[in-house]
UniProtKB/TrEMBL annotation, chain A:
The lineage of its organism: Bacteria, Pseudomonadati, Pseudomonadota, Alphaproteobacteria, Acetobacterales. GO terms for molecular function: ATP binding; ATP hydrolysis activity; transmembrane transporter activity. GO terms for cellular component: membrane protein complex; plasma membrane. Belongs to the ABC transporter superfamily. Macrolide exporter (TC 3.A.1.122) family. Keywords: ATP-binding, Cell inner membrane, Cell membrane, Membrane, Nucleotide-binding, Transport. Gene3D superfamilies: P-loop containing nucleotide triphosphate hydrolases. Signal peptide: none annotated. Residues 6-227 form the ABC transporter domain. This is ABC transporter ATP-binding protein.
TrEMBL record, chain B:
It is found in: Cell membrane. Pfam families: FtsX (PF02687), MacB_PCD (PF12704). Its main location: membrane. Residues 21-241 form the MacB-like periplasmic core domain. Belongs to the ABC-4 integral membrane protein family. The keyword Membrane applies. Residues 299-406, 702-813 form the ABC3 transporter permease C-terminal domain. Keywords: Cell membrane, Membrane, Transmembrane, Transmembrane helix. The chain crosses the membrane at residues 20-41, 297-318, 339-362, 382-403, 436-454, 697-720, 741-765, 785-809. It comes from Gluconacetobacter sacchari. GO terms for cellular component: plasma membrane. This is FtsX-like permease family protein. GO terms for molecular function: transmembrane transporter activity. It comes from the Bacteria.
Amino acid sequence: MLIDLSHIQRLYRSDEVETTALLDIELGIESGEFVAIMGPSGCGKSTLLNILGTIDRPTGGSYQFGGQELTALGEAALAAFRRENLGYVFQSFNLIDELTIEENIELALIYRRMPRAERRERVAHAMDHVGIAHRARHYPSQLSGGQQQRAAIARAIVGAPRLILADEPTGNLDTENGAQVMDILQRLNDEGATIVMVTHSPSHADLAKRRVDMLDGQIVISVRNAI
Amino acid sequence: MLATILKSVVRQIRRHPLYVGLNVFGLALGIGVFLTLALLVRYEYGFNAGLPDGDRLARVDAHWTLPGVAPGEYASSSFHALPFMLQDFPEIEAAVRLRGTGLRVVRDGAFVALDSYQTDPSFFRVFGLKLLHGVADRALAQPDGLVLSDRAAIRLFGTTDVMGRVVPLNRGGVTVNHVVTGVLASRTTPDFLSGVELLAPIPSSELGFSCFVSWGSDCGSVYLKLRRPGDIAALNARMRDFVIRHAAGADNDANAIGQHPEKVFGLSLMPLREARFRDFHVLYADDGVDRAVIDGIGLMGVLALALACANAVNLATARAGLRAREVAIRKTLGAARRVLFVQFMGEAMLLAACAGVLGLVLCEMLVPALASLTGEALAVRYGLVGGLLPLIVIVCGFASGVYPAMVLSGYRPAAVLAATRMPSGGRGAARLRDGLVAGQFGIAVTIVICMLVINHQTAFMRSADPGYTRAGLLIGSAMPGGDLAAQRRLLDALRTVPGVAAASFGELAPSPDNKTRSTYRYDGPAGPVRVHLLQDTVSTRYFDVYRPRLLAGRWFDAARGQDDLPLPAEQASHTVSAILNRVAVSRFGFASPDAAIGKGLDTDGLHARIIGVIDDVRFESPRQAIYPEIMFFDTLAKRPLMEPIPAVRFEGVVPSEMARRLNRAWVGVLPDAAGEFSAVDVKMAAYYTGDERRGRIFTLGAAAALLIACLGLYGLAAFAAARRMHEVGIRKTLGATGRQVVVLLLADFLRPVALACVLACPVAWMLMRRWLAGFDERIALTPAHFLIAVAGAFAIAILTVLGQTFHLARAEPARALRAE
Ligand SMILES: Nc1ncnc2c1ncn2[C@@H]1O[C@H](COP(=O)(O)OP(=O)(O)OP(=O)(O)O)[C@@H](O)[C@H]1O
Ligand SMILES: [Mg+2]
């Protein structure tokens, strides 16, 4: 078991109201799986992904990754964990405006100790992989939404992570671009990466190996797709 | 439109109180500092300008080119030249002699020292000063007349209504009654006569003094009022011929200069309007100020304003980014670019106007502080301020408004609305912001380095080894006349005062009034060498009192009869023992102090033999080069000293108590002459205060510049913190640790500061090297000055941005990504 979530809970406490974004999540994901998470807006999909990505901390429960308990780790250790194991594709791309596409992708490697030449090579490879090599020296604002999303995917995969988290990677794209992105993700999965993807599109969810449905912060159903 | 602008400004104040506050306060600070320093600069440039017909007034300066010393211009010249000038130059409308004196007013048995001068009845015709009481033409006509300044009258009598009152004046131990015949009205504009408290006629008994009859002697200054302003230059051109015609004198005239007087002596006219700055290079001129320093202070004011403007630009462009979306939406709804431009410009002007008012308030607060700091009669002059302020507001408003207004009104709405988050105004704006921060810190660091060097130098001047031991030393006032018995009695009396370790006389002392100089000849192997020497005669125990450093030979010995200076009549047949200072030894060309021992020197009717050499002793300004000096010895066995100055080394008593005891002892011996003992620091204070005061102005300027620069940096950091939250979230998601983010942000914030330091150091180095060159006694310009300033700038910059940086680096990635 690569990922083992048990009794994960996430409460948001503001002055007056208390929102329960996640309520007692139990989820196990094997290495090499491709999981699609679906559910209505506000049901906690992004929150769950953030917790999987350790950029948010659960208020209760345990999160084991490859047998290691992550909820007990400190800031620096979590940063190191993300650096080594994770690729993240955001719903809203989240590229840095001041950096070129190439530099944005390189950012995922910059925090590892890696020789510059190797970094360059990997970046070039990742860009080829998603088909935006010709846009390397452009700035994000000069790219279309689909191109930006592909750049974001390139950034997520450049470090060859064990786990790729994608939050509605096709949400802002047209059918064609969406299909291209799904194609890339499937290819990555075939090459051995574990993928967890949030999506509103049933057809895209059907391309995953497993589908998890959420409602009001809870997992209601988890089904394996027939291949 | 105005209503829209007002509404928008109010809304911005509510939404971004920090940015608006920093903007207005920074600008106000810059404006306040600028106005204050502008007033100071105007004060210096307007010195003497308030004198009626100031463009026709000039002082007669003497130029001496003497052997062994650098040629110099002197603010005082012989009174003997004046009658010849009046006779040769019909361009002279009026002339007056002015001589500073040690006149003291006797009040209830005590002496009151006033800044007093002896002068001619023509004083008022030349300078045109107004009298509160009395008639200008007659005020100084009668020999026992007396003119007081209004402040002196109040000090003495409590009122200015003092015409006809009797004032006993003491000079040189003799008291004469004078009658008040005029009271000077006070003036608002500064000039060299502002400090005058008392004017008295020149007594006929003193007209035989050498400075009245000899070309080579002086004891005061001559001022001329010409008929036309152009006459000053015209007369200057004719002065050389004038000197040749009159100063050579007949063959045996001891009062003349001799053959070819123009080779050693010259005269020139110093226009009073220009004297304030030119006097800096004139010897014996008290009011001279280094124009470069004043210009530096003015520049500092301009730079403070520029810094503040840069801040305003910075914060305004930053703020513009925050409003980009608003602008884009307005544009989509149909607002014309011109309308938006006018609106943003109007807002900038309105904020600048607020800053202007605040700046004026600040100026009102700063000016009195600066006046007490500089000792000058500074005041807020609304003529100047009223003219400058609107101009400043418009310039600042325009400068801070034009770029953001252009950027904002020029945004393409599509790009802004399509962007994932607020734009920063693009790379151009980012570079502009960094450049401005670098400029600000560059200026601030330059001023800080200058401030450090100036204050170090002024502190050094006070503490530098003067060649004698200052602590435990008290110097008395000059003892009038040459009464041998009285001199012996005073010395004996001083030596018995409890606490006194040693007492002696010298004709010179720290800050000397009277100096005797003459040319001495050494017949060396390579022919005769002539050096113009300052002459001092000292009494027994002088060595124990001052403790100079003996470099070679020996000190005078009372037991050896040949050391004692013979009576003038016997001098020709004697060899007189003399001691030289180090400078004199090198000017005569001796290889070392030891090489000078035993050598002979000659001057008119006197043959001296060098018995010792002492290290240079500094009695005068540290700006001035040490004059080559010769010392003689007088045991007071046969001949008196001329107006000797007592000095006392004491032990085990606090200086103030010691001075009190000595003053009492003095009165016991010489009840008619006031004697005042004071410490060397007090005597020499006048040499340092000018530089110390200006050092304080620089400290103030440096603080203001740093504060303004930090306000700017803080604003930018706050802005960046808001803008880069998102970026930090992304970086952390990609695995950056908090520490890496802190380092990244600090490096970004500090890059312009580092650039600033790189730029500032060479500039400051050049400025300070030039300034220090004006001192004979000066500190070396070391890397320490620069390192301290740079380290200080970095420390302050880091402190300024640290809060924002940590706040940013600690942000949880998930929340940071959501924040928008
Ligand atoms: N910082 C926060 N403070 C308070 N409540 C929050 C916060 N973040 C999320 N929530 C709440 O938690 C719940 C889950 O949010 P989440 O973003 O995970 O939804 P989602 O399933 O991703 O929705 P969508 O499909 O619209 O992206 C929502 O009700 C949201 O309002
Ligand atoms: Mg979501």
